[in-house]
Amino acid sequence: MTFSPVHKIAFLDFETTNSADGLRAVEIGMISVENGAPSDEFNFLINPECPIDPFSRGVHGIGDEDVACAPRFADLWEELQPRLSGWIVAAHNAPFDSGVMKNEIMINNLTPPHMEWWCTLKFARKLWKGRFQSFSLSNLVHDLDIRFPVTHRARDDAWAAMKLFELLVTDALGKGYEDLPDIRRLARHRGKGSWPW
Hints:
This protein has helices at about 55-60, 65, 75-85, 95-105, 120-125, 135-145, 155-175, 180-185, and strands at about 10-15, 25-35, 35-45, 90, 115-120. It is of the alpha/beta class. It is globular. It starts with 7 loop residues before the first strand and ends in a 10-residue tail after the last helix. The mean pLDDT is about 95.
């Protein structure tokens, strides 16, 4: 894998439901990559402590019966927090996933980790401006012939984002972007809804 000069990055995806408290997580998928190789997977269904709305179920296929016995977000935090703290965390459309995480942290009164969000959608739009009609993850996976399909399930979509990032970094290096600050300028996400906490 070509992740140089990025040595420690995790790719995260949430599946969600709408609730009176905003978007709640019903599934998390995260692939941690160190020195160019996947080193850890963190994949769980999550009980959102509210009904899953029909629209959301239609997107990802996860229903109330699937999460009835699943852990709550707070139950996973002891395992999840060390996988975030000190890491770059990338998502396709990071404002969405970072907003979900912020909402869960606030609802559950958890301590936010020190981390940095990157966005493969932002990265692709900057690096490949005008190249594609749509920069959705599913369209990019199709147009770039990435073998990890977008299924709207968290683990699969995290893997797809990881493969997309690999292609982005390879292309960026070929275009003269040379170091971590260069890649960060293309990919870093900072927004009121997610960062800083």
